[in-house]
Fold this sequence. Notes:
alpha/beta, 3-stranded antiparallel β-sheet, Rossmann fold
Amino acid sequence: MTIERSHVWRATVPAGGQSILAAALSSTKVYPTLPASPNYDYDWPMRWLLHGTLTQAAADALRRHGHEVSTLEQAGLSSETEAPDVLATAHKKQLDLMTTDSALANTPFDGAKAFDRSIVLVNVEAGDVEQDDAIDRLFARYKRLSPGRLYTVTGSRVKIRQLPSGR
């Protein structure tokens, strides 16, 4: 009797079988195998809108972590756009927001329309190394950011605050 393994188990019994097992089996029986455990990838890349004085190193850090980055110009906005309009555009285009502007980060708490994406306030010096390290620290601590949260990244820690919902 030979047993082969491909996508299913296949047992072949020679004609005129010589054992009880061979008599019990027909000439070929197929025994299905369980599929290999699926590799589910729930960590889709996040799509970020950069606002404020974020450096190119900050954008590169986001890309290094596997995320997509958009600037205000790519989203059809200017640097003079009002905070509620920036949030509305980010919501409409399904972009999470990374900013250095605390006024923009606090806009959802001022009674404006609810923002159900993530906001990251990078509250560190404007240097390349500091912002890059802050983003690395954020994603080292939190692999996947939750929607409806404000993450404030300071020089020494990451604080989380729930954004008000419109419900």
